[in-house]
Amino acid sequence: MVGGFALELKGREMVAGQVALEVKGLSMRFGPVTALDGLSLKIEQGEIHGVVGHNGSGKSTFVEVLAGSHVPNDGQMELFGNPADFPGASRAREKYPLIVVHQDVGLVGSMSVVDNFRVNRFKRGAAGAIRWHAEHELTRQRLLALGVDIDPKTLVEDLSSSDQMLISVARALMDLEEIRERAVHKDQAILILDEPTSSLPSGTVDSFLDTIRDVNRNLGTTVIIVSHNPREIMSLSHRFSALKNGLLVGTYVTGQVNYPELAALMAGQSGKDFEASGHAGELRSRARISNSQEPAKVLSVSNLIGRRVKGIDFEVSAGEIVGITGLLGSGYEDIPYLLCGSQARESGQVVLKDKELHKTNPRSFKEAGAVLLPGDRQLTSGIQTATVRENMTMGHLSPFTKRGLLRHRKERHTVAGMMGRLRISPENPDRPLNEFSGGQQQKSLIGRCLLRSASLIVIDEPCTGIDVGARNEIHSTLREITNSGSAVVITSCQYEELPMICDRVVVLQSGQVVGELSGDEVTEERILKLCYMDAPQSSQESKV
User: Fold this and answer.
1) Would 251 be classed as within a structural domain?
2) Phi, psi (5° rounding) for residue 513?
3) Angle at the Cα of 367 (from 362 to 368), degrees rounded to 5?
4) What are the tens digits of pLDDT across the range 491-543?
5) Same domain for 125 and 206?
6) Is the pLDDT of residue 343 over 80?
C-alpha cells in the first residue's frame, strides 16, 4: 500500500523512449523580467526526473506553468505524445493528468484537515447529508499511511509545516487515484513535487522519498521533483535537468554525475570550478585566521529551562558560529525564542555582553544588541506583500528619520547598497518580497540583521528550502558577520548543513545537552550519532 492506495503494475520499469511531457520554446515574462527564455525540456514516461537550478533559474515558474497558475507568452506542450494546451489556457484543466504539490502546500489554515483533504469529494447519504464519520475515518487512514497521526477535525493552522506538507501529498495521491480511474492507460499521469521535503524534519525525509519511489515504480507514474537538495536528487531521480536564467543547461543521467558536479550545476557553476567540500574548508580557514586572539564572550546561558528545555548551558564567543540541533521535539527548536523572550523561560540566566537579561522580551533583547530571525519566511520572519525595503528596515527606522519624518531617499539608498552587497537580484528595493525566490527572500531578511549591527544574531533554520548557490552565499555572509566581531547562533535540523558553517555544534536530546562538537569533530555522522543516542547523559557530559 502507498498512502492507502492499492498498488498495481508491480515491478514496472521506466519505458525508455516514450515521452510523458515535452515543452518547446517555453517563454514566460513578468513585465521586464524574463523568467523562462525559450525553455525546451523532455520528460520520459515512467521516470523520476529532477529539475535543479539556482534561485531565479526558472524552475519554480516552470512548475507554475504546469500547474495552470501562469499562461506562458510563447511555447508548445505535448502530453504523452499528443499536443496539448497549457493548463492555464484550458477550461478543462482539472482533466489534465498533472498533479502538483506546491511548496506552499495550498491548504486553508482556518479549515479542518478533513475539510482541506476532502473538499469537493465528500460522500453523501441518501438525504444529501455528508457522512462525517466515514469522511473522518477515510482521512485518518490516508494520513496514517504517510505516518501522520492527527485528528481530522484539527485546524490546519494548528499543525506543523511538515504535517501540512504530508497532508498536501496525501491529497495529491488521491488525485492520482482519480486520474488512474478515468484513464485508458493507467500509467499516464505525472506527479510534480515542488521542494516537497523543505519543511520536513530530517527523520521523515527517507520514508517520504520511499513513498515517492513506490508511486513511481509500482504505479508507473512519472514524477517530476524540483529540489534544492543535491543528495535528494542523487538518491531519487533517474535523470535531472539543470536550468539557468530560464534556459536548459542540459539533461543528465543521475548515475553518471558525481556530487560536486551536481552541486555545481545547481549553483549555476561549472563542475570543474566547484568542489563540494571546499566551501566549508575555506570558511573554517578564514575563521582560524580571524580568531587568532582569545575572543570575548558574547552570550552565556546557564540552566535555561523552558517548556521542552531542561536546564541547558552554553556559551558563544565573538567571531564564532554555534549550531544547536537535535531531533524534532528535542527542544533545540525552542532555544531562539527562549533567548529573545517570545517564549517564556521558567528559569535560567541569559547574559549578553556582561549584561544579564532578567526579564527578556523581544524589545529588551533588541536593545541589548541582539537580533532574531525566525525560521518561517512566510509567516513570522518577513511580510510577503511588503517591499524588500520595508522588510529590511522594519523596526529600525530611527537611522532614516529626521524630526519625525522618514527620509525615503536615504532608506532606499541604504537598502539598495545592502542588496548589492548580498547579491540580491533584481536589485529593486521597492519590489514586494513575495516576488523574489526563496533564497533571495532569505538573503533580504538577513540584510535586516546586518543593518542593525548586532553583536549577536540568532537564526532559526537559515537555509531551509533554498538552493546550493544561495546557501553558500548565506554561509559566506554569516562568516563575514563573525569576522567583524559579532557572534551567530544557528538552530537547524539540516544536519548536513551544520558542518559547512559552524565552529561548534551543541546537540540536544529530550531537552538536555548530550554532546558538543567543535572543529574537525563537527561532521554529519557525529551529529547524528549524538541525536540518536539511547538516552540523555548529564548535561554537557558527552564529547564525541
Assistant:
1) yes
2) -75, 125
3) 100
4) 998 888 899 899 999 999 888 999 999 988 998 888 888 886 654 443 344 44
5) no
6) yes
Same domain, yes or no: 458 and 539: yes
Q: What is the DSSP letter of 16?
A: T
As for how many domains the chain has, the answer is: 3
CA gyration radius, the chain: 24
Query: Do 348 and 495 lie in a common domain?
Result: yes
- Contact between residue 98 and residue 87 where contact means Cβ atoms under 8 Å apart: yes
Q: What's the burial of 249, exposed, middle or buried (CB within 10 Å: 0-12/13-18/19+)?
A: middle
Rounded to whole angstroms, how far apart are CA atoms 317 and 487?
Answer: 6
Residues 6+ apart with CB under 8 A from 197: 165, 205, 208, 209, 227, 229, 232
Q: Do 218 and 339 fall into the same domain? A: no
Helix (H, G, I), strand (E, B) or coil at 155: strand
Contact 170, 121 (CB under 8 A): no
CA 404 to chain centre: 39
Q: Summarize pLDDT for 5-53 with one digit per residue, the tens.
A: 332 222 334 445 689 999 999 999 988 778 899 999 999 999 999 998 8
What strand order describes the sheet that includes 74-79? 33-44, 19-30, 74-79, 82-84
Q: What share of the chain is helix, strand, coil (3-state, %, to 5)?
A: 35, 25, 40
